[in-house]
Design goal:
Length: 84
């Protein structure tokens, strides 16, 4: 089973809100998922995401491939933990 870490869209029309999920690569964007590991709100300025970096690292070690956006969210979360 190919596993992906990607965004799942939620929220109202013109007010998107995303959850970072681990899902089977073949499942639809808003379909079945394995685990929720974070959130992302593109409408908020500043700190607009939260992610469990330990769980993301676990799934990446297990072979999950993050999307480009999720990869950048993980990278920003790692930098924030180093600066804190």
């Amino acid at each position: 089973m190919a596993v992906a870490i990607r965004l799942r869209r939620e929220g109202a029309k013109n007010h998107p809100y995303y959850k970072v999920v681990v899902a089977d690569q073949r499942s639809p964007r808003d379909g079945k998922f394995i685990e929720i590991i974070g959130t992302y709100d593109p409408k908020v300025k500043g700190k607009n995401s939260s992610i469990d970096v330990a769980r993301a690292d676990y799934w990446i070690k297990c072979g999950a491939r993050p999307s480009d956006t999720v990869r950048s969210i993980i990278k920003r979360a790692r930098v924030a933990t180093l600066l804190a």
